[in-house]
Write a structure and sequence with these properties.
Blueprint: E1 2-4, H1 5-8, H2 18-27, E2 32-39, E3 48-58, E4 66-71, E5 78-82, E6 92-97, E7 101-102, E8 110-111, E9 115-117, E10 120-122, E11 124-126, H3 129-132, E12 143-144, H4 154-157, E13 162-168, H5 180-191, E14 213-216, E15 224-231, H6 240-248, H7 256-268, E16 273-276, E17 284-289, E18 295-297, E19 303-305, E20 311-314, E21 319-322, E22 326-327, E23 339-346, H8 349-359, H9 364-369, H10 378-393, E24 396-397, E25 402-403, E26 412-417, H11 418-425, H12 431-440, E27 444-449, E28 452-457, H13 467-478, H14 502-515, E29 519-520, E30 526-527, H15 529-535, E31 542-543, E32 554-555, H16 560-571, E33 578-590, E34 593-605, H17 622-635, E35 642-645, E36 652-660, E37 663-671, H18 673-678, E38 685-691, H19 692-698, E39 714-723, H20 728-738, E40 743-752, E41 761-770, H21 779-797, E42 800-802
Parallel strand pairs: 14-17, 29-33
Antiparallel strand pairs: 1-13, 2-13, 3-4, 3-6, 4-5, 6-11, 6-12, 7-8, 9-10, 15-23, 15-24, 15-25, 16-23, 17-20, 18-19, 20-21, 21-22, 26-28, 27-28, 30-32, 31-32, 33-34, 34-38, 35-36, 36-37, 37-38, 39-41, 39-42, 40-41
Amino acid sequence: MRISYNWLKDYIDLTESPEEIARLLTHSGLEVEKVETYESIKGGLVGIVIGKVLTCEQHPNADRLRKTTVDVGGETPLNIVCGAPNVAAGQTVVVATIGATIYPSEGEPFKIQKSKIRGEVSEGMLCAEDELGMGKSHDGIIVIEKEIKPGTSAQSYFNIEVDSIFEIGLTPNRADAASHLGVARDLRALLNRALKKVDLKNFQPGFKASGITLKVENTKGCPRYTGLSISGVKIGDSPEWLKTRLRSIGLNPINNVVDATNYVMHSLGQPLHAYDLDEIKGHTVVVKNLPAGTEFVTLDGVKRKLLETDLMVCNSSEPMCLAGVFGGLDSGVKNNTRHIFLECAYFNPETVRTSSMKHGLKTDSSFRFERGTDPNMPKVALRKAAALIVEIAGGEISSDILDSQTETFPPFRIETTHQRICKMIGKEIPADRILEIISLLDIKLAFRNGDLLVLDIPPFRVDVQREADLVEEVLRIYGYDNIELSDHLSSEFLSEFPAKDSDRIHSLVDQTLIAKGFQEILTNSLTKASYIEMLSNSEDAVPILNKLSEELAYMRSSLAFTGLETIAHNINRRQKNLKLFEWGKVYHKRGNKYKEYNKLAVYLSGNQHAESWNAVSKSVDFFDLKTIVVQVLEKLNIAVTQVQEIESNPLFSKGVIYKNGGKALVEFGYVSASFLKATDVKQDVLFANFDADLLLELYSNKSKYTEISKFPEVRRDLSLVLDASVTFEQIKELALKTERKILTDINVFDVYEGKHIESGKKSYSLSFTLLDKEQTLTDQVIDATMSKLMATFEKELNTIIRK
């Protein structure tokens, strides 16, 4: 949102610099992202003055040039060579002095320097319109048809406006600040300075009926509708001051009537709409909903089909305006319009927001209505806009004001105490100071009994509904920086916190992954339809109704797509060794409901480390990713109770699923070739997809510790030849089942398949770690244990023990 420093002065006196105002606004919650200088003429005519041509002679060395002397208010006249055909002695002209920068209507700016032109000294430049960016004429220099004191600033003579524009990152809750008056209200509280009243002295109402019959059928969608008639207007260009005001905040002037409504909207935060009165059939205005599918052509010439939820402003037979969003093509103000009906209403925010979203229409009006405007502002804004239209477009206000709501809208009420406010802020602030801040924010003290405060919140502060909101208002005006940190901090707490903190889990996992050289990424939640079709049933997909493009048409159903796109982007820029992770949401439709789930994605691709003279460069493999997965789960104290291969997920060419209690904790493995091709990744990628919601559910911050044994471990190795279908997990599970007491670990350190072993067989070389925590193991116990294991392997797995 753009706010003009000069425009703000219409509502509050300011002596502070724009930079100081920007600092104050930012510290109070209206973040000023940047301050720009605006000039109604580029460069502001700095260094340009009014001069008097004293003499004009033929240039001795050029037929088309003239030698002039020009008085610019200095001690001596300037010698200036000029090529304009209309230059003559006695003229009052516009002079660019040495050092001034010229910004022409076309071409690059240039700086005026002392020079020689065909052998004659030239100490400035006599300017034409296009050379100053004031127009397109280049027929000759600008000649002013009256006596002006030489040396007068051209900036002051031409009334050039120089302004500072604040670019404010307005948060959605601050609908009240979406105008110059709204920002001025905050400055009034910050500076403890009086706010100027909205100027309505030029409003001269008509006292006859408007001739318009008003009916509001949907009072929930339109709690208030006001309007009046203006007769005899002449549509044309707006005066220069109004064009400058609108251009300064990035708006293009259209015509005097539309510009007036835009000016009032950005002044007071209240949208208005002007209708051609002669186009209102039956001289009736009806605010109602129309049947779904009704066709309506908006001002942009697009034919739209209405929804049953769309609130419409209609005449006796057809719709004229999509309420609060966009006007109709036929009923709007045209060049030949002579009589207008001016509308100013309060529309239900939810109604406007729904229509704006469904039709993909975002306008300055919908921006304000859907956040919540002031229901008591319409009559004020209507008077101001009507007076301005009569001033700049002629005509007269030919009717009294129509108003569907004769009562003012009541304030919101909040109860609190001085003690509660200070406790939530964390500092004892005098009650008088708190009440002063509250009063400066237009919040009225309705009742006070001792420490109890009953406060009435003005209806335009839709964001102040709770005690906490009120405390925030006090704090942002008092100043966050004025809350000192105590030397001794304390808080009320319970001895245990059963609620699990997702941020804590994120932090633990982040530390684990970053320590292993991983980098976190953040990718878009929107993705291509083609990805969705590859991975999931289209009936489960979540499409975007107001999609920005076909490339961003669906909510993602997996983090893999955008992660793979990030990998491709890096590989294409010669960053091939990648360790990445991302926390994010995925989206699915389950029946008639939409669901979102939290996921953690981990990616490995390329080599384990960069090339080095003293280490062999090796590509990452499945076991590198498995190590990371295990470390993440161990960090969160989550046990894996079941392991199975991935069988039906098209995202993986091969991989496994770790489960706990039948629920999938994580699936990980190699990304399939089809997905690599779809995302233009030209090397293998390993991907782990964690269920972050389940991680939070199973996470335990109570680590288990076991005393280190005083007795030594013993290692024994076995070489087993068995069927190729037998997995290490099967062997491990059988061994731990056979010997529960002293067998503490099993590891595979070699696997062999080849010509020295029978076809369909493989050889595992395993190490077994034995430990008795109560005594030193004897050879007899060790031998008996290993014999029992060998016998079990031979019986259960048809194993050949290589001795």
